[in-house]
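@here heads up, posting the sequence + SMILES for the flavin mononucleotide run so it's all in one place. Ping me if the SMILES looks off, I pulled it from an old spreadsheet.
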Amino acid sequence: MSEPVDRLPQTRVSYESPTFDDPGPTPLDLFRRWYDEAAEHIREPNAMTVSTLDEWGPTSRIVLLKGVDAPGFVFFTDYDSDKGRQLRADPRVALNFPWHDMHRQIRVRGLAEVVAPEDSDSYFAMRPRGSQIAATVSRQSRIVGDRAQMRAEYDAAAARLEGREVPRPESWGGFRVRAFEIEFWQGQRNRFHDRWVFRRSDGSHEPAALSQASAWTPVRLYP
Ligand SMILES: Cc1cc2nc3c(=O)[nH]c(=O)nc-3n(C[C@H](O)[C@H](O)[C@H](O)COP(=O)(O)O)c2cc1C
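bot reply: prediction finished. Complex structure tokens:
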């Protein structure tokens, strides 16, 4: 159990982990290894924060990672939602995987791009029908009167689409985050944590394939 809010200054968890002295050759190898370890210990390790920018500053929300490969990290959303509009106007993005229970955190900085429509089609087709109908009706991030209105719109769409495949709404699909920096953090005793950050070997802030060892140089940071 944790302390209640009025004991925040006294709330303290001590971290101890195996040593983390070798980040390995590529960020993809390390991410995959840590992800598989997280999958054994953590519920929804694929829940990550996605931070975007608008004219007023940064804003974050949680979304689910649906794939990671050499080009980047993929998630799905409504392109006309606040985050969708923000990313289409300014692709600069940050991800955070907060795996507290393992005393680990992974931070990603990069640029978001819309995935190929076929990739959005194939993932949409895999979703449960109810989620497909909800995505058809929802105008994510816009104001709605009440739950009854949402329900009525859902029921109308379900009736209209009865017996048919639900087509993917054009405004719904994936983003891929192409990274130029990835940090792996592991908590250690005395707050003397391990931090390894993979930066671009050429010093640029251009995204690179996560599997290409020559593109990345890992450096250790003070905690
Ligand atoms: C555990 C969890 C998983 C979520 N997964 C997604 C997701 O995969 N895609 C998505 O669009 N929103 C997801 N959301 C909802 C977002 O956090 C957010 O409320 C929504 O996308 C609207 O954000 P926006 O107004 O900034 O665009 C999730 C929320 C939680 C708590």
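MO: The domain at 14-220 is CATH 2.30.110.10 (Pnp Oxidase; Chain A).
MO: One more: The mean pLDDT is 96.
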